[in-house]
Each structure stands twice: as structure tokens, then as C-alpha cells.
């Protein structure tokens, strides 16, 4: 068992998706960097998720904390704030329960973390058929990150396939020339716990649609700069339905983000600490 003073806490969000979560947890058991804990932010899953976590905790080398709240609709921001407080490490990596990390995933975050900065990582989205096809063995042997294997199973040719490169020089070059902004992405981002606490975590008014980006925008208003590693810190994004996505939630969140930008807001009163 790893001691309490680990370098990284990894927050994984989940909701009733045990098949995907199991694949993800095997991905973390394959990490080159090993001084971390997993904190599962569970937004009201049924007992099957707890059963899986209890079983996996006996099989993997890293410690797992299960932070759960009752199902009250899509309340990811709320459970993420609870998970942040449960993190033992000073540095937090955030990802989702449908994102399988490559073996160097945490190593990239660890080697590139820097005071006054957060890291914006990338993901490689898979179609549903390949998402179901991936096995524990495919993950532990890293077969599922192999472009040739993916193409043999129906992956279409795309520039985005460059995200799967294992050549460090090529990845660094692509990181530098990308026109994509350094944003806080819920599937792959990391930063210092103290910085996240100082802006009061996630805005709990926000449901699906950009609550992760809004946190990053407040961090930047707070003086924290983003670093782009979308071609280096890689995870495979398993496909799934998004029944919680509504036009109303999207528009509400866009309005909140517009206000954050317009008024240079750094701190939300609707976050970890609630103002009466």
C-alpha cells in the first residue's frame, strides 16, 4: 500500500457505467508512475458500482477512495467538489470513468506539473463497437493504443490519429503547433489542489456542458496559466450515450461562463464553500 504522502490524487467521475469503469481502473494499474491514489467521484450510482470498486481494490496496486452522493440528476460539479476535498495529494489529475489512460499518462502529468500552471491533456475518441471490444489484456498490453490494431478494427484515417504517437519529439512538436487553447478538460486535466480550492472548485449551479471549462477560466482569471499536452497525456475515450445533455443546461452554462469572462471572476460562491 502506498503511503499517505503520494504525489498525485486522480479523480475519476462515474455514474452507473461499471463496464467502462473497470477498463479504466485496469488502465491505472498499468501506469509507469505509481505514486498515486484514485478518488472515484460517484454521482449516485447503484450498488453495482460499489461492488466493482470493492472487487477492484483487491486486484490493483493503488489505493481507491469511493466518494458517493445520492442520485439527484446530473450533479457532477457537486460530487467533484466532494472528491477534491477527499484528495490526499497536493496535485490533482481529473479524468472520467470512460477514459482509459495510456501507461505514460500520469508520468506526463507528473513530469510537467509546475507551480502557477495547470495541464490541459488530450483524448482519443473511440467508436462504440471498439469501446466494447477492448479487453483487460488489450489494456495491460497496450494493444488498444496501437494505431494498426485500431485500424484493423475499423478506425478511420484522421489527423487526430497522431494523438496515439509514442514518439516524444513528435508529440512535443504537435503540442507546440496546435491551435487548440489550453483549457481545463474534464476528461484530462491537472492542477494544484490549493489553486482549485482558492477559486472554490466547481460552480455547482452548472450541470452538463462546460463546467470543467468554467473552472479553468476562473483559474486563468486567478493567474494560473494553462499548459497544452494534448498529444502527450493521452487517454482513450470510450463511447456512450449522453441522455443528460439538454439545450437548457448548455445555455445556462454558457451564460455563467460569459459572465465569468466579462467580469474576470475568479471565485464562485456556489462551489466547495457555500455562501449563505
Secondary-structure arrangement, i.e. CATH architecture: Alpha-Beta Complex
> What are the segments in which pLDDT stays under 50 over at least 5 consecutive residues?
none
How many structurally independent domains? 1
CATH topology-level name: Spore Coat Polysaccharide Biosynthesis Protein SpsA, Chain A
**CATH class label:** Alpha Beta
Content of β-strand? 15-25%
Major sheet characteristics: 7 strands, mixed
Gross morphology is globular
Please tell me the overall pLDDT.
90
Number of β-strand runs: 10
Which strand order does the major sheet show? Answer: 3-2-1-4-8-6-9
CATH superfamily (homologous) name = Spore Coat Polysaccharide Biosynthesis Protein SpsA, Chain A
Helix/strand structural class: alpha/beta
What's the order of the H and E elements? EHEHEHEEHEEHHHHEHHEEH
Amino acid at each position: 500500500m502506498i503511503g499517505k504522502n503520494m504525489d498525485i490524487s486522480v479523480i475519476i467521475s462515474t455514474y452507473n457505467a461499471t463496464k467502462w469503469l473497470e477498463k479504466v481502473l485496469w488502465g491505472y494499474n498499468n501506469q509507469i508512475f505509481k505514486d498515486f491514489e484514485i478518488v472515484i467521484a460517484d454521482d449516485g450510482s447503484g450498488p453495482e458500482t460499489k461492488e466493482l470498486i470493492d472487487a477492484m481494490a483487491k486486484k490493483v496496486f493503488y489505493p481507491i477512495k469511493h466518494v458517493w452522493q445520492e442520485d439527484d440528476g446530473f450533479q457532477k460539479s457537486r460530487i467533484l467538489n466532494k472528491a477534491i476535498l477527499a484528495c490526499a495529494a497536493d496535485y490533482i489529475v481529473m479524468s472520467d470513468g470512460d477514459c482509459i489512460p495510456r501507461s505514460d499518462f500520469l508520468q506526463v502529468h507528473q513530469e510537467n506539473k509546475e507551480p502557477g500552471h495547470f495541464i490541459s491533456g488530450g483524448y482519443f475518441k473511440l467508436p462504440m463497437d471498439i469501446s466494447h471490444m477492448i479487453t483487460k489484456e488489450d489494456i495491460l498490453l497496450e494493444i488498444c493504443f496501437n494505431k494498426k490494431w485500431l485500424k484493423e478494427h475499423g478506425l478511420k484515417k484522421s489527423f487526430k490519429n497522431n494523438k496515439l504517437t509514442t514518439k516524444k519529439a513528435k508529440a512535443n512538436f504537435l503540442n507546440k503547433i496546435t491551435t487548440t487553447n489550453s483549457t481545463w478538460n474534464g476528461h484530462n486535466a491537472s492542477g494544484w489542489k490549493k489553486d482549485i480550492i482558492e477559486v472554490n472548485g466547481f460552480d455547482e449551479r452548472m450541470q452538463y456542458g462546460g463546467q470543467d471549462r468554467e473552472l479553468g477560466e476562473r483559474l486563468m482569471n486567478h493567474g494560473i496559466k494553462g499548459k497544452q499536452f494534448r498529444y502527450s497525456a493521452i487517454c482513450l475515450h470510450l463511447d456512450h450515450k449522453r441522455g443528460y445533455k439538454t439545450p437548457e443546461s448548455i445555455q445556462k452554462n454558457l451564460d455563467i461562463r460569459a459572465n465569468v469572462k466579462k467580469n474576470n471572476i475568479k471565485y464562485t460562491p456556489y462551489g466547495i464553500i457555500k455562501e449563505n
